[in-house]
Specification:
Pfam families: Peptidase_M28
CATH architecture of the largest domain: 3-Layer(aba) Sandwich
Family: Belongs to the nicastrin family.
Keywords: Endoplasmic reticulum, Glycoprotein, Membrane, Signal, Transmembrane, Transmembrane helix
Membrane topology: Single-pass membrane protein
Transmembrane segments: 17-38, 508-529
Number of strands: 20
Length: 550
C-alpha cells in the first residue's frame, strides 16, 4: 500500500514539483515572521553650517548622498558614510574624513550635562576646526535616540577587518554574517538664501539741554556649526536679555521727570553678529553716521556692548584702547570693578573680535562687557552653549551689577549714598528675575543662527518678539539691511535640515555567497528530481526483491 503511494509521490517529482516550488516559495516568504518595516528607520537630521564670508567658503558644500554606513574604524573609501558620536571623533579623524569619505553623520550626546570638562573642550575645539574649513562631503548632525544607539553599536561590531581575523575563512565568515546599513539623505541642492538682517533701536531721552548719548548694544543671533541647533544661551541670548532688562529698568527711571537722567540712553539689538563680522552693526552705523541727519549718534559718551555674560559671575571689560582716567569709560570700569583686557583691532583678521570694534572703527569710545576672558573662547559658537540654573543665576547677578554701575554713572552717585539714593538702588534698580529667566529660556530654546532669523520677516520669529517687548518701554525703529549683490559681504546657504533614511542591508559579498548557495541548491534539487525515479526503482527492488512493474 505505501509503495503505491510512493509511486504517486515520484510522479509528482517527475512533472509538477518545480512549478509547485515556484508558487510555494513566494508564499513562504510572505508568511515569514520577519517584518521588513523594522529594517528601515527615518530621522530628522541637521546640516552643517554653510556660508561664504568675503567670498571665502565655510562649512559643507553638499547635501544629498546614498552611501553605505561605516564606523570610525571600518570606513575606507568615498563610498562610505562615517557614522560616529561627536565626542568620539578627533580633529585628525575629521580632517581625513573631510578629504576622503563620502559623508559624515555625527550623533550628539544623549545628555550634555554628564559630559566631562575634557569632553566638552574636545567637542568645542572640534566645532571650531569644522567651521574654519571647507568640506565638500555632506555633514549632518542628529539628536541621540535609542535607534541611533543600536545603529552605532551594530556598525562598531559588525565590520571586522581582515587584520583582526585569525584565518581567511573567519574573515570571510565575518563579512558574510555582518549586518550593514545603507544611509540615504535626499535634499535639494544648496541654494543661496535671501538674507536681510535687522537692527532694532530705541532711545530714552535725557533731560533737556543734554546732548550726550550712552549706547547699550548686543547682537541677539547665535553662531554655531549647526544652524538648526544653534541655541547660543550665553552667546548671545544673555546679552540680548540684559538689553531688555536694562531697557525696562531705565524706562521706569526716565518716565518720571524728577529722576530722569541727564544723558540719552540708546538701546540697540543687532543680528548678523559674530560669525558674519557684525554686518548688521556695520550697516546700521553707516545709515546713522553717513546720512544727512546723524543726530542719533551725534555726541556719544560711550558704547557698552554686552556679550556672553551668563557663563560666569565675574565680568571683564574688553577694549580696543585703554580708557583715559576721568573719562566715561573709565568711570564705568571703576563702578563695575572689573579688570580690563586690551586688544587692538586687527583689520587683517577675517572677523572682528568683539562688537564694540565696529563702533571703535567709527571713532567712538566703545567696549564690551563679557564673562569670557578672550574672544577666542570656543564656547562662543558651540552646540553645548545651553542654559542651566547656574547660568541663569549668573545672568541675574550680572544684570544687577550692570544696572547699578550704569545708574551710578548716569546720576553721578558716589559710594556714600543717603537714604533716598539707597531707596533708588533697592526699588527702582531691582531686576525682574522671573522676566529674565523667561526670556533667557525662550531665546535659548530658539535656533537663532543667521540662516534662521535673517530670512524671516522683521515682525516674525525672535526678531518680532524682541521688537514687541522693547516697544513697551520706548518707541522702536526697525532697520532692515541688504547685502550687496555684486560684492556680497557674506552669503548664506540652505537647506539647514533634512530627512535621513537608514536601511538595514547585507554587504555585497553576502549577495554573492547567497547567489552561489541558491545556484547550488537549485542544482541539487534539479538532479534530485531527474534521478529520483531511478533511485526509487533501486529502492523498490531492494525492499520487495523485484523490480517495479511499469
Amino acid at each position: 500500500m505505501w509503495i503505491d503511494e510512493a509511486d504517486g509521490f515520484a510522479e509528482i517529482f517527475k512533472g509538477y514539483l518545480p512549478y509547485y516550488l515556484l508558487v510555494a516559495l513566494p508564499i513562504f516568504i510572505i508568511m515569514s515572521p520577519v517584518n521588513p518595516v523594522t529594517a528601515s528607520h527615518e530621522f530628522s537630521v541637521y546640516r552643517m553650517q554653510q556660508y561664504d564670508l568675503h567670498t571665502v567658503p565655510h562649512g559643507c558644500r553638499s547635501a544629498s548622498f546614498n552611501l553605505e554606513g561605516r564606523s570610525l574604524t571600518s570606513w575606507s573609501t568615498s563610498r562610505h558614510c562615517v557614522v560616529a558620536r561627536v565626542e568620539d571623533i578627533s580633529i585628525e579623524q575629521f580632517m581625513e574624513i573631510r578629504s576622503k569619505a563620502g559623508a559624515l553623520l555625527l550623533v550628539l550626546p544623549k545628555n550634555d550635562t554628564v559630559l566631562t570638562p575634557e569632553d566638552k573642550e574636545h567637542i568645542q575645539l572640534l566645532e571650531m576646526a569644522m567651521i574654519q574649513n571647507e568640506v565638500n562631503a555632506p555633514v549632518y548632525f542628529a539628536q541621540w535616540t535609542p535607534d541611533f544607539e543600536d545603529i552605532l553599536r551594530d556598525l562598531q561590531h559588525s565590520f571586522i577587518t581582515d587584520d583582526k581575523s585569525k584565518t581567511a575563512l573567519e574573515a570571510m565568515f565575518n563579512s558574510v554574517s555582518s549586518n550593514g546599513y545603507q544611509i540615504v539623505v535626499s535634499a535639494s541642492t544648496p541654494q543661496k538664501l535671501d538674507s536681510k538682517p535687522v537692527t532694532l533701536h530705541g532711545k530714552l531721552v535725557g533731560r533737556s539741554g543734554s546732548a550726550q548719548t550712552i549706547v547699550i548694544a548686543a547682537h541677539y543671533d547665535s553662531s554655531g556649526v549647526v544652524p538648526e541647533l544653534s541655541q547660543g544661551a550665553d552667546s548671545n541670548a544673555s546679552g540680548a536679555v540684559a538689553v531688555l532688562e536694562l531697557a525696562r529698568i531705565f524706562s521706569r527711571l526716565y518716565s518720571t521727570p524728577a529722576v530722569r537722567g541727564g544723558p540719552t540712553l540708546l538701546f540697540v539689538l543687532t543680528s548678523a553678529g559674530h560669525s558674519l563680522n557684525y554686518f548688521a552693526a556695520k550697516k546700521w552705523l553707516e545709515e546713522q553716521l553717513d546720512s544727512a541727519d546723524a543726530s542719533l549718534l551725534q555726541d556719544v559718551s560711550f558704547v557698552m556692548c554686552l556679550d556672553s555674560i551668563s557663563s560666569s559671575a565675574t565680568l571683564t571689560m574688553h577694549v580696543s584702547k585703554p580708557p583715559k582716567p576721568g573719562g566715561a569709560a573709565h568711570s564705568i570700569k571703576s563702578r563695575l570693578g572689573v579688570p580690563i583686557n586690551h586688544k587692538k583691532i586687527n583689520l587683517a583678521d577675517e572677523t572682528l573680535a568683539w562688537q564694540h570694534e565696529r563702533f571703535s572703527i567709527r571713532r567712538m569710545t566703545a567696549f564690551t562687557v563679557s564673562a569670557l576672558q578672550s574672544h577666542k573662547e570656543p564656547s562662543r559658537g558651540s552646540l553645548l552653549d545651553t542654559p542651566s540654573e547656574l547660568s541663569a543665576s549668573n545672568l541675574i547677578k550680572n544684570i544687577g551689577v550692570l544696572a547699578r554701575a550704569l545708574a551710578s554713572h548716569v546720576y553721578n552717585l558716589t559710594d556714600e549714598v543717603n537714604d533716598e539714593d539707597a531707596m533708588l538702588y533697592d526699588e527702582l534698580l531691582g531686576v525682574d528675575e522671573v522676566a529674565i529667566k523667561h526670556w533667557y529660556k525662550y531665546l535659548s530654546s530658539q535656533p537663532r543662527a543667521p540662516q534662521i532669523i535673517t530670512t524671516l520677516p522683521p515682525n516674525a520669529g525672535v526678531t518680532g518678539a524682541l521688537e514687541r517687548t522693547l516697544s513697551r518701554y520706548m518707541e522702536i525703529t526697525v532697520s532692515t539691511h541688504t547685502v550687496d549683490k555684486r560684492e556680497p559681504e557674506y552669503t548664506l546657504y540652505g537647506p539647514t535640515r533634512a530627512q535621513l533614511y537608514v536601511y538595514s542591508v547585507k554587504p555585497a559579498v553576502f549577495d554573492l555567497i547567497l547567489t552561489l548557495a541558491i545556484v547550488a541548491y537549485l542544482t541539487v534539487v534539479y538532479f534530485a528530481i531527474q534521478f529520483f525515479p531511478r533511485f526509487y526503482e533501486e529502492y523498490a527492488r531492494l525492499v520487495t526483491g523485484k523490480a517495479k512493474v511499469q
